[in-house]
Amino acid sequence: MRKAEYPLVPLLELTPDQTKIFTLPRGKGEVALALHNGKVYAFGSLCPHQNASLQDAPIEKGCVVCRRHGYRFDLK
User: Alpha carbon of 45 to those of 19, 48: distances in Å?
Assistant: First the structure.
């Protein structure tokens, strides 16, 4: 996987312990961001279980929780 840096959003737009999806510049797809315990995490915008959108998914005990069916995966 290639490392890339993109200016996306001011941190003030992130709600702690909730994901938000952003579109990457130049048609590079989407990324989900989450602010948890003072750190920003970036990961794919779709649930790895059944490809549901992770928009507004809550973060509970360090895990993203898919709103569609409750699938959980660790932020780290």
Answer: 9, 9
Do 9 and 24 form a contact (C-beta atoms < 8 A)? Answer: no
Whether pLDDT at 1 is above 60: no
pLDDT at res. 66:
96
**pLDDT mean across residues, the chain:** 88
Torsion sign over Cα 53, 59, 61, 67: negative
pTM: 0.82
Task: Give percent helix, percent strand, percent coil of the chain, each to the nearest 5.
Answer: 10, 40, 55
- Distance, C-alpha 32 to centroid of its chain: 3
Domains along the chain? 14-74 (2.102.10.10)
Contacts for 33 with CB less than 8 Å, ≥ 6 apart: 8, 9, 14, 19, 20, 21, 22, 40, 41, 42
